[in-house]
């Protein structure tokens, strides 16, 4: 007979409480460096698209080696939710004990994704942007815009923020809310070109399927975190932007399979696969040159990796287990071994 065990349940509020942005930035940097050192298992995710095209189900397993964390994220992506009360990304991260395989935690994936995605962009910004970069353009006004603003404030001296959304009311509401939250002035603007003119930090976190960023508007020396598009046929950046830039990714294999921002320029023969200079973890490890000159344009194409979710889940479980919990735990009954 196996012993009974508890499955810890962490809701979104618990994730936000236990995973502050600065701590998540640190663990994402360590996780990406570990991936570059092959101290992780990170297969490509499996995607099932619904027949009616409304959404998709992503299955994302991974093992992070240091500290050890074994997890799978199950997440749905329903772009149509952007106009309603529900987030576009919803799901759970299931964490297992890496020593004996027990499931130990069930964690809200939406909040994990919101925080760790922005934290990875902060790691890329620290590694690739100019040190005095502080004119920030946010392309999109949803959850990822909120967490990316927090992440950029953590790693660069932000002096100006402009935000654009396809829905003007959302951009205005975001600007008012986040200006109060952070004590900074945020300017809602009428178009993406107006947002990026002169910006030296750009985060594209939209639901766009075709380019909203055009290379002839990008200032020399800018760094771009391209986050929103995550399929082979969608992109936020046009070909000119990619051609002008030094391009880095979270994982090359995933980028060549899923990143339309890069796949489509390759199909157009504007670039070859070798235009991707490497994974961010290699830059962190010093194996790949990041920014070479102040006027370089750098792009970090983020798809999001399950190893990031596993590492975040491991830290969340450790912290939740160490102190009083607001989240419930579920007592699992004994089971007879087969």
Task: Describe it.
This protein is an alpha/beta fold and 338 residues long. The chain has two domains: 5-113 and 306-332, ornithine cyclodeaminase, domain 1 (2-Layer Sandwich), CATH 3.30.1780.10; 125-301, Rossmann fold. 35% of the residues lie in helices and 25% in strands. The chain contains eleven helices and 16 strands. The chain has helices at 12-18, 21-36, 109-128, 143-155, 168-182, 192-196, 239-244, 252-258, 260-267, 280-284, 306-322; strands at residues 5-10, 40-41, 46-49, 56-65, 68-77, 89-96, 103-108, 135-139, 160-164, 186-188, 201-204, 223-226, 245-249, 276-279, 297-301, 329-332. Strands 1, 2, 3, 4, 5, 6, 7 and 16 form an eight-stranded mixed sheet that branches. Strand 4 and strand 5 (68-77) form a beta hairpin. The protein is globular, with a radius of gyration of 20 Å. The chain starts with a strand and ends in a 6-residue tail after the last strand. Residues 325-338 have low confidence and may be disordered.
């Amino acid at each position: 007979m196996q012993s009974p065990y508890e499955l810890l349940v962490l809701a979104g509020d618990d994730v936000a409480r236990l995973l502050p942005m600065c701590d998540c930035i640190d663990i994402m940097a360590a996780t990406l460096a570990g991936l570059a050192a092959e101290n992780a298992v990170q297969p490509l995710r499996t995607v099932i698209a619904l027949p009616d095209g409304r959404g998709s189900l992503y299955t994302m397993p991974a093992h992070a080696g240091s500290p050890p964390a074994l997890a799978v994220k199950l997440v749905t992506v329903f772009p149509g939710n952007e106009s309603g009360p529900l987030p576009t990304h919803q799901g759970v991260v299931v964490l297992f004990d890496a020593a004996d395989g027990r499931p130990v935690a069930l964690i809200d994936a939406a909040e994990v994704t919101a925080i760790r995605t922005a934290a990875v962009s902060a790691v890329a910004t620290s590694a690739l942007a100019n040190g005095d970069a502080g004119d920030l353009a946010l392309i999109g006004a949803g959850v990822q815009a909120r967490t990316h603003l927090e992440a950029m404030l953590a790693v660069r001296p932000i002096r100006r923020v402009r935000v654009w959304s396809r829905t003007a009311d959302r951009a205005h509401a975001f600007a008012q809310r986040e200006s109060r939250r952070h004590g900074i002035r945020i300017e809602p603007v009428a178009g993406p070109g107006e947002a990026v003119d002169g910006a030296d930090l750009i985060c594209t976190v939209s639901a766009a399927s075709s380019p909203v960023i055009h290379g002839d508007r990008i200032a020399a020396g800018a760094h771009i975190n391209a986050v929103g598009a995550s399929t082979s046929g969608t992109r936020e950046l046009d070909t000119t932007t990619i051609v002008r830039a030094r391009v880095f990714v979270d994982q090359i294999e995933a980028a060549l399979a899923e990143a339309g921002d890069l796949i489509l320029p390759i199909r157009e023969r504007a670039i070859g696969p070798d235009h991707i200079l490497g994974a961010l973890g290699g830059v962190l490890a010093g194996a790949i040159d990041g920014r070479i000159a102040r006027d370089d344009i750098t792009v970090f194409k983020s798809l999001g990796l399950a190893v990031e979710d596993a590492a975040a889940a491991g830290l969340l479980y450790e912290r939740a287990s160490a102190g009083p919990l607001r989240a419930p735990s579920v007592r699992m009954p004994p089971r007879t071994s087969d």
